[in-house]
Amino acid sequence: MERIERIHALHRILTASRYPVTVQRLQEDLECSRATVYRDLAYLRDYLMAPVTGNGEAGFRYDHSDGQRFELPGLWLSSEELHSLLAAQQLLLRTGGGVLSNALAPLQHRIEKLLDEHAGGRRVPVERVRVIPHRTRKLDETAFRNVATAVLDRKQLAFEYRARSTDERTRRLVSPQRLTHYRENWYLDAWDHERDALRSFSVDRIAAAKLSDDAARDVPDEELDRQLASSYGIFSGTPKGWATIVFNARAARWVADEHWHSQQQGRFLADGRYELKVPFSSGRELLMDVLHYGADAEIVEPPSLREQARALLSLALSQYDR
């Protein structure tokens, strides 16, 4: 048992006990030596300002004569929880394109200090938590912070948006609803006041973002999910149908463990292939993901999506016939 866990256990024992607890019992409950018990009691009393009273003969207890119940101060986590938190923090830092680095730096320093204090001073090898960004896009830090602030403060947001598909620049006034991290990139779900509809915006395409003093219009979560999360992909919309994709036995070992959509339906076929069904609105993103598997995947239904896949494959093949 590491020190932080012993201190936590010692605190629970003294809090629950109406009478002084002997050193012998503390040794047994904490699974440590007599000297360690005294060190932990001194740490609890002198460093954490706990009302510890007593001696080695009569035992130790909390003095609650002032009527106040003592609680451990600050952030108290086990070493395993601290390591998990540090790993999660590293994941955020390394997948955020540097946008979150400054904001999370104090948290990282605090976590590392807690680990040093309660893990015997051992160095935490942060470099062994390896996160490799894949196809991330460069974000403007100011724009990202303004977007996040508008979402959390529930304020309207004005910005310039450069659509990736057309490269057209437009000025938008929106009521931010949700900030979504999807496939290592950030997206803003918002109510577009000019178009009077819900839209999703890629945050890396947002520029000159300015917060308004006007309160944002709130759209119920059920409506957001119905329009923006009910179909496949980030720019999904209301489902127009279901796609059926069959993967050969080799790809099935991967696809069967993958999450494509919250409403997906999957099953193994008798010959070892895997059949996956997902709701979709626009087939663009779904086609890209299916074609990623090459000859290991086949779109079975609907016929229109199957023909789109055939056309894309023919076009790709023509690039190599020159």
Automatic annotation (TrEMBL):
Stretches assigned to the WCX domain: 241-314
Residues of the signal peptide: none
Any Pfam family matching the protein: WYL
Superkingdom assignment: Bacteria
Domain WYL positions: 143-210
Domain called Helix-turn-helix type: residue spans: 6-60
PANTHER family: PROTEIN PAFB, PTHR34580
Protein name: Helix-turn-helix transcriptional regulator
Organism: Lysobacter koreensis
Organism lineage string: Bacteria, Pseudomonadati, Pseudomonadota, Gammaproteobacteria, Lysobacterales
